[in-house]
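If you are new to this repository, start here. Below is one unmodified record pulled from the training split, so you can see the exact layout before writing a loader.
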Amino acid sequence: MENVRSIALDALMEAEGSNGGYGNLITSVLNKYDYLDRRDKAFIKLLFEGTIERRITLDFILDRKSSVKTPKMKPVIRNILRMGVYQILFTDAPGYAVVKESVNLAGKRGFKGLGGFVNGVLRGILRDVEASENKDNKRYEIFLPESGQYSHETYLGIKYSLPGDIVNIFTGEYGKRAEKILEAMSGIRGVSLRFRSGLTDEEREAAANAIKETGVTLKQDPQVPFVYQAYHTGDIRSLPGYDDGLFNVQDVSSVKAILAAGIKEGDKVLDCCAAPGGKTILASELAKSSGHVTSCDVSETKTGIIGENIERLKCDNVEVLVRDASVHHPESDGVYDVVILDVPCSGLGVIGKKRDIKYNLSKEGLESLTVLQRKIIDACVPYVKKGGILLYSTCTIRKAENEEQVLYITDNYDYETVDTPVQLLPDEAEQDGFFYCVLRRKP
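And here is the target side for that same chain:
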């Protein structure tokens, strides 16, 4: 049988040489080893995602405990140590087993001579943990810098494994609350499963129970009963009910936004930036067979993903088009009852899930995003019928991408807000950081 830690190491090595797309990478790895037990695949996913999620924290700890700093380590040894420290500090894996497996991995990768180094570093960290009174899931805190040793922003960056520029955005937007938000975002989170809204309570409960029987833990959302947080899933596609279209992966924050738009039976809906299709699918269910949803995105790759999902969820009232949302299409002016404008954004509300975001974000990239958002707004706001609804949303927490863009719409077009804009934050509930505002086109 394949060694699961070795598979996770291969994925980490590939990730280190890439510019992001970690979600696609681990999905590809899990597909390759589809024959493995679900728990083994879940462990591979945990090691890969957790080690990447906590990379900055792990490197800080290694730099304090190792005679060789992480940038000077051989890449394979660096990743073996990162993975080992992650297991010791953030999982329930027995420490002695982690050390042994890490040393064995170094030998199998041609670095038997560095086995002693790996052993010494990890045993030193393990001894500190065992000597500490802090043996819960925050064991890493014993290695954090002392108060006042660094600036508050630098400290938060080390603790929550974030680059300084991103920490500054959070503290600038939310002040003292920033740490609570970062804590809620950190670590491995569940996968949000949205069951088809048309299922009865009994049908949904039966589908949920079938998933639980595979060893997956499900937690029903207290506000949206057809959404569950799922833990220890492995490959989502192998879960009971997936092929039958009983559920889709969609965060509850996104579900709340679509529900707020008030889509009714018979409505004509346009989803302008739709991939992977979660909002389209829920809109399709709400509009029912007498309604219609046009689902668009910029490339055939993205629309292909939408198409796969709507076919699996059996959405017969959806049309999928390759269309650049930043280009105006006059033939669509005044056609739609509801236009969903979930624009490309910095993704700062989902950095706990999309781990490449925090390692690739730049000031220039943020500025170009707000420009693109304005282009999409200018192109798409005419598509709403008079009296119709525009849903503007992002998965970020920056006012420049959220409230300021809503103000741009109301200042420059014949729109008014239906309700106060909503900024959902992960310290309020088990949800992504997500923004939405429902606007009405004036009659």
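Two things worth knowing about this chain: The mean pLDDT is 93. The longest helix spans residues 363-380.
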